[in-house]
């Protein structure tokens, strides 16, 4: 971009998130919790005027993960989902066992 931007002009910004250790985005897992990531962008000009924008990072939008890295990300997502489901199953089993001991 050359020169000063005009009012209302869009300035494209690209931020690569590969260097950050982010887990997959989960929404309403077992209706108990969700994980979401937000990017707070603050631009300050020479006159100390600030423009602020809060953006939600949605499911891998804007992230390119070619080849081996993509396979690693998919494996990590699958592992995380499996661990989460295992925890939910264990919790349900504990609840059942407690109900059975209460009935006896």
From TrEMBL:
Matching Pfam families: Vps26 (PF03643)
Coiled-coil parts of chain: none
GO terms, biological process: intracellular protein transport
Domain of life according to the entry: Eukaryota
Listed PANTHER family: VACUOLAR PROTEIN SORTING 26 RELATED
Family note: Belongs to the VPS26 family.
Protein name as annotated: Uncharacterized protein
Source organism per UniProt: Pneumocystis jirovecii
